[in-house]
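Quick one: Major facilitator transporter from Aquimarina atlantica, structure tokens please.
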Amino acid sequence: MNKRKLSFWEIWNMSFGFLGIQFGFALQGGFMSRIFQTLGAEKDAIPLLWIAAPLTGLLVQPIIGYLSDRTWSPRWGRRRPYFLIGAVLSSIALFLVPHSPALWVAAGFLWILDASINISMEPFRALVADKLPESQRSYGFVTQTLIIGIGTWVASNLPWMISQMGVSDAAPNGVIPMSVKIAFAIGAFVFLASILYTVFTTSEYPPEDMEEFEREKKKKNQFIPDILNNIGSMPLTMKKLGLIQFFSWFAFFTMWSLANPALTEHVFSTPAPIESTFNMDVPESAAAFEKANTAFQKSSNEVGRYMGTYGLSSMAFALILTFYTSRKRINRKWVHLGSLVLGGLGFISMYFIPSPEWLFLSFTLVGFAWGSILSMPYAMLSSAVDPKKMGVIMGIFNMFIVIPQIIAAVGGVNFAYKLIGNETINAMLVAGISLIIAGMCNLLIVNKDAITYNPKGEVE
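--- reply ---
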């Protein structure tokens, strides 16, 4: 199919729903560990509590990719019905998460939230490949990354902003502060509103061969065989990208699950207080617990705010690439390699910084890696696979995102950082080393179309 080139605003409209998706992910990534700690979770138990996120992605994304490939409605299109269903479910879950009365309830809501976000997210990746000609693929994925950066920065700063408006960070033991509850409610609204904007401003191309499409739809019990067949026939470039994704997402899962305990302890010197070490029947001891808990909640706001920096720098990175890729081709391999190495150095620097203000620089470097992770692998992949199977291929590719996170969650990250020492900050060193390894794995990519799309087949 000959696809026309789209304007910036057409690409912006079709990608705008990612603002809400990233609000959900940023609130989840920046504050779920804080919620778990507030509800009494031990530090080393936090990665396992996070296992809901990768497990739901492993199950949901291939299924949604497969179903969306086989969906067509003249009114709603192929991918948009899934955007909408996921948005409604995600918004409900986002609102309810900070109202969890117990740890097991919060963990359960994380399962629901992450499954719902994945229902919306996977078709967005496929939509770029569906709508854009090959020459605009990098441009499209980078524009998505620009919007993701905006969402990450704003959402990560929400509890801090709300606290600055006078909403209290203090709360009784085991209760999530009001500043966090309001932030999640705002996130729920933005999620639904941004998805609706994309649904109503974006059209989709119908299947190129409708008769063949209808025949494929009528085939029964093809899901598992199709998935296994696509895994078995996976292009070599996709496998190599999978190795890069493995180390990249191991690093970011480590950040999402352990940055809050690591940085509140090592950088802010305000660890989460353990109730059992206080005699809550003695007023002075109870007051000391409340003071320590409020200090932890405030420093957690600061950690979230500094983490938002990686969204800001990824946004700037994406903005530069958006302007550049709208006019010229880029060498995706070298861009991704350099970005991941810079991100790794950002993580490693967190161990050595003399004061919290330096976290701004650390997370700025991490943002370069994040901006590249959200665009370059998908741009390289989309140039190396069958466009008719883009939805299911993107879903299968997600395995290379969730498998490292599952390994990290079931003990991999705790094992790795304790090889260095027992302090939680060592987890950030592990994240940095992992990103640098991911960067070096880009040297394995040799497919010319994946590295730099060029109609003449040349690599620049």
